[in-house]
Specification:
11 helices, single chain, alpha/beta
């Protein structure tokens, strides 16, 4: 069983392109066959499509053999202006027959979780994250949404609660101001950039809050051995200085007979605060490849050279 590699199911919500039910199931089956037992989704992903597909797959498997997480904060409500269009503004190739409404209240959090359970056809989830409150109202998310999740945890509705964000400052506030168990931070502690290293990860370690890292390939920049010409960075064009950094990372990795994606998947797990790396794909072959990346042997000398070049921080913890 692999518990350090999680399957991120955003792509199963038709992220950027349509994915068939057969493709989605094949990707999930590949993950299960590789021993992956951590699965993450959210209502946001394809307006519920990701949750439905993930739930359908997990329905035939023993619930005590996997860890399932979803997110709250965005309610899906009917779109009064639906004209047959798609949700491409939010990046998903699905009918825009519903819209997202931020509701961090106790009733909103309970409703969100209940509707997620219904979509997935499960009795419970193991982890519930407050999803991107900084996009809407971080103060309300921390003062209302997180306490509501904590109450649900204390009632035994979920085992762990946390926050899922792209912003280090938002995550740090949640750690300092609430009683959460886990932080999911996307794109901010990767081989390419580590803004979470200075304050967030040390505080999580000190407070016993585990960290799940997502988007470790930085929009695909680190997903191939050499930078693809059509790669994106933070969903846009790649700045020259970022491209140069990626190319240097690839060159150093090559000298040690390590590929860039192998290093990208394994790097976050070197920090003791990080428990899991979540990687998303809708392709079964890519799922199997990611599992191989996790198992690849990487010499310590590679990390030491990356530290010497200032490409990754020297650890402020004992290995």
């Amino acid at each position: 069983m692999i518990d350090r590699l999680g399957f991120g199911a955003a792509s199963l919500g038709n992220l950027y392109r349509e994915v068939s039910d057969e493709q989605a199931r094949a990707a999930l089956a590949a993950a299960w066959d590789e021993g992956v037992r951590v699965y993450d989704t959210a209502p946001h992903y394809g307006l519920g499509l990701s949750e439905r597909r993930l739930g359908a797959f997990l329905s035939g498997l023993p619930a005590d053999e996997y860890v399932l997480s979803t997110k709250v904060g965005r309610l899906l409500v009917p779109n009064p202006d639906f004209d047959g269009g798609t949700d491409e503004a939010d990046g998903f190739a699905v009918p825009a027959d519903r819209i997202r409404r931020f509701d961090p209240s106790r009733s909103g959090v309970e409703r969100s979780l209940h509707e997620s359970l219904e979509r997935m056809g499960v009795d419970r989830v193991d982890v519930a994250y407050l999803h991107d409150p900084d996009v809407y109202d971080l103060d309300a998310g921390i003062s209302q949404g997180l306490p509501a999740l904590v109450e649900l945890r204390e009632q035994g509705v979920v085992a762990e609660v946390g926050i899922g964000v792209n912003d280090v400052g938002a995550a740090l506030r949640a750690v300092e101001e609430s009683d959460i168990d886990v932080v999911m931070i996307a794109g901010r502690y990767t081989l390419l950039e580590q803004p979470a290293a200075s304050e967030l990860l040390p505080r999580c370690l000190a407070r016993g809050v585990r960290v799940v890292t997502a988007a470790v390939f930085n929009s695909g920049l680190l997903a191939t051995a050499t930078r693809a010409a059509d790669a994106h960075y933070n969903y846009g064009a790649v700045p020259e200085e970022v491209a140069a950094r990626v190319d240097l990372l690839a060159q150093v990795c090559e000298r040690y007979e390590v590929t860039l994606p192998q290093a990208a998947i394994q790097f976050p797990l070197r920090h003791p605060a990080v428990s899991t790396v979540v990687v998303g794909t809708s392709r079964a072959a890519a799922v199997r490849e990611n599992a191989r990346h996790l198992r690849a042997s990487i010499p310590e000398e590679l990390w030491l050279e990356l530290e010497r070049l200032g490409l990754i921080p020297a650890p402020a913890f004992e290995r």
